[in-house]
Amino acid sequence: MVKGVFIVLDGLDGSGKSEMVKLLHNYLFSKSKKYRILTTREPTNGAYGKEIRDILARETDPSINGQKLLELFIKDREEHLKNIILPFLNKSSNHEVNIAICDRYYYSTIAFQAVQGLDMRMLIEVNKEFLRPDVAFILDIKPEVALERIKGREKEKFEQLEFMSKLREKFLELPKFLNDNIKVIDASKDKDVVFDNIKKEADKLF
User: Fold this and answer.
1) What secondary structure does DSSP assign to 128-143, as a single string?
2) What domain range is 101 assigned to?
3) What does each C-alpha distance from 179 to 2, 86, 133 come to in angstroms?
4) Handedness of CA 42, 186, 205, 173 (dihedral sign)
5) What percent of the chain is modeled with pLDDT above 90?
6) pLDDT at 1
7) Are 103 and 42 in contact (CB under 8 A)?
8) Tens digits of per-residue pLDDT, 107-135?
9) Fewer CB atoms inside 10 Å of the end CB: C or N, the chain?
10) Average pLDDT score, the chain
11) Are the beta carbons of 10 and 170 closer than 8 angstroms?
């Protein structure tokens, strides 16, 4: 039986996920001495995660290698859960609550690879056995705004307007297809407002 609390933040690059992960970590850490907090991300720094990042950095066509990326993401997620997330969550006790916060999870796999042309229901099926988060925040933002935010860094192959427009649609469709506790957060607002909305939902878990 898994104990602890599992929180996911997902959405477009440029939506502010990494910043919200940091803010949530710091907020929960200050909230109670009982809370032990792990922040992690996908793809991981393991062998499969490194291969994924290499593909994303090397290729420029966002439509290719969907099946290959799916297989790598599944293997990476299996290792991530087995070696890091589940052992940490299972250490929760009456004296401490372990909280894992993950930057990207299977929501990204379903959305990204669906835009790459893979069947959405198949993508949901191959991810259905993975641990379901207690809450998943989808940070929603217009792709034009997201791209403006990340314009100073080197782009990966998915960071193109047409692809990201379709990707946003897929992320917003997820609550229709999944029974997960998904909260769509307007990420275009000031970061303090965005975080306040996340904080209110996160507080409900405790």
Assistant:
1) TTSPPPSEEEEEE--H
2) 5-203
3) 19, 21, 11
4) negative
5) 89
6) 45
7) yes
8) 999 999 999 999 999 999 999 999 999 99
9) N
10) 95
11) no
The tokens of 50 are what? 């490194």
Q: C-alpha distances in angstroms, 103 versus 58, 59, 64, 94, 107?
A: 22, 23, 24, 27, 11
Buried b (16+ CB within 10 A) or exposed e, 110-127: bbbbbbbebebeebbebb
Q: Is 30 exposed, middle or buried (0-12, 13-18, 19+ CB in 10 A)?
A: exposed
Among left, alpha and beta (phi > 0; psi -120 to 50; other), residue 105 is beta
Instruction: Report the domain count for the chain.
Output: 1
Instruction: Give dist(CA 108, CA 89) in Å, integer.
Output: 22
CATH number for position 78: 3.40.50.300
Q: Which two tokens stand for residue 139?
A: 């940070």
Supply the angle between the helices 106-115 and 66-80 in degrees, to the nearest 10: 180
